[in-house]
């Protein structure tokens, strides 16, 4: 029965079991309690952390604060301005024109400000009508092949995508271009057209300045009709004659810490001593010149090949890109200006903007010395513009010289003609003007305020980064000519580069530079044929292209036909890169080498003549081979003649009329199969 019923308990066993159960229960409770306490502590810890972070949230919101600063509307309201002049500028001229227009405004009881579109939110244009008698003026330069300038790229992108209602906006546009280029004033024309499409009201016609002609005269002519149109629109009148108003005040530093003084840097103080990437226009890299050799065997010119070491700079470039270099003015010109004006050029000074609200605190990096300003920051070799002459006139003690300067700065036909002949055509720079007008002795600080900034010079890179990842090559010709006054004028950058000695310690071998990306690119497929046309130093990018095609071939890639049309004056005088080209041809990379020597025979022969000679082969490569065409060099004559030759070839072999042939070539351009890298 017991077997069938509940087991009978042994008293001793029962006590032990009971104690074990109690022990087990106690330890489980411990674990539970410890876990609970740990959990609560963890929860409390993180909860406490979150509570501590809550007061920091307003700090995160402060990121949005600069948006208010980027509103030009708020700035205009705060400073009582009603005219804003935006500039798209690559070389400083459009910025200069914008400053002149904004300065003009005071003569009509209006207040203007010049503005860099890169620094503001341009969608605020729709709010400009909140300001009484408001107007937006756009001084827009066109860069390269119809492109916006670097600082106007965002504005251009916004215009393309914008669907804003600009019906309350009043505007006017002055474009800066060059007629020798295919897309003359494309940016100015686009801004003018697009603003109207978005509903804005044009109050004066589009101005088209031509740098191949007389850009200064084009601007003055437009400006003298622009202001009367503004007066009529707003019902205002001129308050008086143009007057000289200083924009900056001089501060001379007698007791200054020299470590706080700029010595040629473009942006950050001591940036040349303590280099930090990324490198760009405001932060150039100091590259060492490792090679500087003369390329030509004879003739009066000096053609040179330079190599810049970019090791450890993290600078990347592609074949076809441009290298920008910041040159220095000739020290003898700087010294002569100092002597004529009786100035101690080593005086350390600052020019401070009298408008405290202006984003531009100084015309160039300050504090600095007059010597540094005239050497690295100011353009002293180009003929000064009329506004500079007008402002300087007050400092001529001779009445005749003063009248002459004022006349050249006027909009009268006689004054324009005098400016053209005496300044522009005679290539008189500021030193020549001071020499030829003995009574003109302006204060050096006002002269420094008026002179435009010295600009970077761009060169097509003559190397491939696949072959030369740590160096950038330049091919250039030194500019030197005699003016109508018998003076010898020298190109700033090329003569400065010529003087660079490889592997020397100190600044004698250093070049401040950065890379500007280009659309001038080899085809994506290496098997695509290329036709390259580049006489003179126009061969530069093609040296890089051929190097790259040779490298691709070494990698086992199928490389298409590589055809070069090159030209120079004489075979035994200025045939650039002769040995390199012969080697590339021998290796089979350069499948055709066509060279035109223009002066080796009675009748001049240029690259376009060789294209005509080989017209059947050219058409076959373009039509059947889908070849890409590249033209580099002189825009005024060569590029135009080459393009006309392609019209003829297309018309003849494609059985097309002239208009159809022109359209065919234009379509090649649109598709990126006809690329230009030209200058005038």
Question: Please, could you describe this protein's structure?
Answer:
The protein is an alpha/beta fold. It has 4 domains: 72-234, Rossmann fold, CATH 3.40.50; 275-327 and 456-518, Elongation Factor Tu (Ef-tu), domain 3 (Beta Barrel); 328-454, NADPH-cytochrome p450 Reductase, Chain A, domain 3 (Up-down Bundle); 530-678, Rossmann fold, CATH 3.40.50.80. It is 38% helix and 18% strand. α19 (607-613) runs parallel beside α21 (635-653). The relative contact order is 0.08. Residues 1-29 and 42-68 have low confidence and may be disordered. The chain crosses the membrane at residues 25-46. Its cofactor is FMN; FAD.
Give a brief outline of the structure.
The chain contains 22 helices and 23 strands. The chain is α/β, with parallel strands linked by helices and 680 residues long. Strands 1, 2, 3, 4, 5, 6 and 7 form a seven-stranded mixed β-sheet that branches. A six-stranded antiparallel β-sheet has the order 14-11-18-9-10-15, with helices on one face.
């Amino acid at each position: 029965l017991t077997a069938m019923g509940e087991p009978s308990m042994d008293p001793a066993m029962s006590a032990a079991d009971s104690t074990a159960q109690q022990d087990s229960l106690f330890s489980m409770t411990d674990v539970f309690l410890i876990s609970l306490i740990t959990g609560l502590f963890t929860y409390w810890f993180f909860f406490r952390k979150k509570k501590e972070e809550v007061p920091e949230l307003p700090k995160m919101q402060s990121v949005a604060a600069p948006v208010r600063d980027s509103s030009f509307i708020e700035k205009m309201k705060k400073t009582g301005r009603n005219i804003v002049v935006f500039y798209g500028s690559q070389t400083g001229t459009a910025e200069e024109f914008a400053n002149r227009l904004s300065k003009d405004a005071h003569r009509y009881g209006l207040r203007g400000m010049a503005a860099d579109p890169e620094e503001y939110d341009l969608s605020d244009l729709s709010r400009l009508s909140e300001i009484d008698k408001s107007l937006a003026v756009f001084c827009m330069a066109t860069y390269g092949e119809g492109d916006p300038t670097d600082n106007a790229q965002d504005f251009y992108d916004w215009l393309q995508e914008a669907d804003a209602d600009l019906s309350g906006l009043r505007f006017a546009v002055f474009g800066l271009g060059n007629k020798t280029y295919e897309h003359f004033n494309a940016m100015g024309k686009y801004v003018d057209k697009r603003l109207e499409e978005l509903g804005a009201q044009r109050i004066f016609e589009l101005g088209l300045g031509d740098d191949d002609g007389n850009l200064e005269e084009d601007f003055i002519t437009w400006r003298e009709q622009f202001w009367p149109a503004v007066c009529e629109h707003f019902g205002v009148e001129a308050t008086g004659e143009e007057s000289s108003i200083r924009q900056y005040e001089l501060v001379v530093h007698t007791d200054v810490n020299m470590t706080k003084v700029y010595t040629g840097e473009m942006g950050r103080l001591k940036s040349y001593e303590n280099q930090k990437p990324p490198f760009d226009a405001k932060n150039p890299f100091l590259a060492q010149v490792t090679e500087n050799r003369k390329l030509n065997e004879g003739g009066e010119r000096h053609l040179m090949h330079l190599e810049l070491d970019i090791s450890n700079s993290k600078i990347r470039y592609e074949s076809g890109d441009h290298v920008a270099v910041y040159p220095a003015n000739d020290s003898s010109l700087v010294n002569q200006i100092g002597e004529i004006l009786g100035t101690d050029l080593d005086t350390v000074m600052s020019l401070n903007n009298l408008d405290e609200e202006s984003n531009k605190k100084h015309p160039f990096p300050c504090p600095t010395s007059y010597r540094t300003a005239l050497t690295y920051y100011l353009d002293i070799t180009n003929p000064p513009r009329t506004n500079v002459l007008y402002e300087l006139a007050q400092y001529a003690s001779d009445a005749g010289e003063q009248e002459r300067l004022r006349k050249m700065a006027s909009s009268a036909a006689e004054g324009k003609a005098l400016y053209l002949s005496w300044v522009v055509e005679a290539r008189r720079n500021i030193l020549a003007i001071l020499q030829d007008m003995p009574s003109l002795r302006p204060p050096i600080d006002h002269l420094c305020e008026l002179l435009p900034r010295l600009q970077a010079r761009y060169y097509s890179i003559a190397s491939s980064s696949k072959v030369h990842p740590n160096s950038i090559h330049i091919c250039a010709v030194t500019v030197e000519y005699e003016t109508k006054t018998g003076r010898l004028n020298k190109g700033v950058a090329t003569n400065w580069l010529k003087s660079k000695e490889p592997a020397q310690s100190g600044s004698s071998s250093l070049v401040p530079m950065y890379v500007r990306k280009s659309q001038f690119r080899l085809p994506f497929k290496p098997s695509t044929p290329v036709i390259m046309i580049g006489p003179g130093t126009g061969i530069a990018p093609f040296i890089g292209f051929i190097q790259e095609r040779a490298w691709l071939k070494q990698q086992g890639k199928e490389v298409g036909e590589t055809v070069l049309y090159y030209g120079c004056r004489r075979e035994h005088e200025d045939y650039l890169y002769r040995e390199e080209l012969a080697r590339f041809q021998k290796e089979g990379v350069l499948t055709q080498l066509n060279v035109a020597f223009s002066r080796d025979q009675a009748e001049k022969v240029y690259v376009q003549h060789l294209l005509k000679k080989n017209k059947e082969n050219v058409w076959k490569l373009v039509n059947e081979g889908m070849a890409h065409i590249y033209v580099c060099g002189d825009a005024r004559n060569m590029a135009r003649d080459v393009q006309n030759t392609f019209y003829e070839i297309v018309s003849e072999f494609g059985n097309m009329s002239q208009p159809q042939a022109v359209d065919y070539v234009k379509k090649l351009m649109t598709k990126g199969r006809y690329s230009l890298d030209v200058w005038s």
